[in-house]
Design goal:
GMP Synthetase, Chain A, domain 3, 5-stranded antiparallel beta sheet, 31% helix, Luciferase, domain 3, Rossmann fold, 489 residues, 8-stranded mixed beta sheet
Length: 489
């Protein structure tokens, strides 16, 4: 079905139940259904046509929920923009997606306005949702929306310097929703959206399944461990999906200043592995287990650790309705214990990358989505992570493209060569390390280069260290050898 129908059905079942809570705002299902109908009609009256892109540059809020479902109902494509990005990154997403409208939180709007001239397709930037009467009808019927239509473009860092726009349809997001529900969510759950809904995790693994089940979704506008625990205690939240890097802070805060968290029944962690010691500490403090889930923006979830048969260090088996195989780089399927690339067939698979047919073609192998991770499987079907085909750095659950950081470094006139790698980090999973060779006769300091990167791209992508070499190690083709750089740290 289309995603607008998910909300309509839940509103019909229990219209007065709270659908979304954010701060002191409590929005019922009936009110959310009416407001998103009105907003969808307004977007179409603004001259948008089916398939036009609407950028959402906003932190977790009732406004974001309204914009998503209005786009779903109007047949438009939502383009969430990470609120941690800097002006050049925002300009790329708005320009590449050819967004017609941008809704930008007042505190973030100056960044959108700064790049407006670089985005010729952008008609208007709104810093508030229009005030609309939900009791008056303009007589316009909302269009029937094909579930095969692309409804969201989620930009993610890839192996290139520019992010890719992952295209999800109503079908693929509904597939992800149903897979998440199969892990144990139901109408009685009160899901907590800890991460931003710009990411697939909060959108497809918390908001959509929560609304589909008819639960009450509680939003965390900006992560803070104390606030997260306060919300769990106040609203009796029972479900959350969280990044391992921030789970650590939640556990530490609960240890220092305990809240009543007995309502938590299901905690899923994804985006990186969860150390066994952290899992055990969570179980003691929350009296509930942490179940690891594995996926990516292109398809989620793929695997989950069973609650009754965990196997420390594994990714778990594939979920029901998800098929996986392990193949070498020629596409040959490998057997038990052999290391190869994970490939996935799932109802949650995306349909490709926006305006990038070459990358889309490379993403699929005869209908199987190429995950880019190296794994092996055992006789029971459990998958074990062995490395990455790609060189993505995962810091705190966020993907960082080394070429993107390198490109930012190259904006300094003294930088002749740059190479960026990820190294293990006890708190964030990985940290960013940059190696630089300077042009003869020119100088640059470590903090100077870090500040330059911070101006151009998000803070979390900034190298923690910049190391200087006379020249970077290169292979026969002249490419920088990142494996060799790792040996120098």
């Amino acid at each position: 079905m289309d995603l607008g129908t998910i909300l309509r059905r839940s509103a019909a079942r229990n219209p007065q139940k709270a659908a979304v809570i954010c701060g002191e705002q409590i929005i019922s299902y009936a009110a959310l259904d009416r407001s998103t109908d009105a907003l969808a009609r307004w977007l179409l009256r603004e001259g948008l046509d089916a398939g036009d892109r609407v950028a959402i540059h906003w932190s977790n809020s009732v406004e974001v929920v309204n914009l998503y479902f209005a786009c779903f109902k109007a047949g438009l494509i939502a383009v969430p923009v990470n609120n941690r990005l800097k002006a050049p990154e925002i300009a790329y997403i708005l320009g590449h997606s050819q967004a017609k409208l941008c809704f930008s939180q007042p505190e973030l709007a100056p960044l959108s306005e700064e790049v407006r001239a670089e985005c010729p397709d952008l008609r208007h930037i709104y810093t508030a949702l229009p005030f609309l009467s939900t009791t008056e009808s303009d007589g316009a019927r909302l269009p029937e929306v094909s579930p095969h239509r692309v409804t969201a473009i989620l930009y993610t860092s890839g192996t290139t310097a520019r992010p890719k726009g992952v295209m999800h349809t109503h079908i693929s997001l509904t597939g992800a929703t149903e897979l998440m529900i199969s892990l144990g969510m139901d109408e009685a759950h009160i899901p907590l959206a800890v991460t931003q809904m710009v990411h697939i995790a909060a959108l497809a693994c918390v908001l959509l399944p929560g609304i589909s089940c008819g639960g009450t979704v509680v939003l965390v506008p900006a992560f803070d461990a104390a606030t997260t625990l306060d919300l769990i205690e106040r609203w009796r939240c029972s479900y959350m999906l969280i990044l391992p890097a921030i789970l650590r802070f939640v556990v530490e805060e609960q240890g220092r200043n305990p809240r009543d968290v007995r309502s938590v029944r299901l905690c899923l962690a994804g985006g990186d592995t969860v150390p066994v010691a952290l899992q055990e500490r969570f179980r003691v403090l929350f009296e509930a287990p942490v179940r690891e889930v594995f996926g990516m923006t292109e398809t989620v979830p793929v695997t989950a650790i069973p609650e009754d048969a965990p196997r420390a260090g594994s990714l778990g088996p594939a979920l029901d309705l998800v098929d996986v195989r392990v193949a070498d780089l020629t596409g040959k399927v490998l057997g038990e214990g052999q290391v190869g690339e994970l490939q996935v067939q799932s109802p949650a698979n995306c349909v490709g990358y926006w305006a990038d047919p070459q990358a889309t073609a490379a993403l699929f192998d005869e209908g199987w989505l190429r995950n880019g991770d190296l794994v092996r499987h055992d006789s029971d079907g459990y998958l074990w992570f062995e490395g990455r085909v790609k060189q993505i750095i995962i810091r705190g659950g966020s993907n960082i493209s080394p070429p993107e950081v390198e490109e930012a470094l190259y904006h300094h006139p003294a930088v002749l060569e740059a190479g960026v790698i990820g190294m293990p980090d006890a708190v964030h999973g990985e940290k960013v390390i940059a190696f630089v060779a300077l042009r003869e006769g020119l100088t640059a300091g470590e903090e100077e280069l870090r500040s330059l990167v911070r101006i151009r791209i998000a803070d979390y992508k900034t190298p923690e260290r910049v190391l200087f070499l006379p020249a970077l190690p290169k292979g026969l083709t002249g490419k920088v050898q990142r494996r060799a750089l790792k040996d120098l740290v």
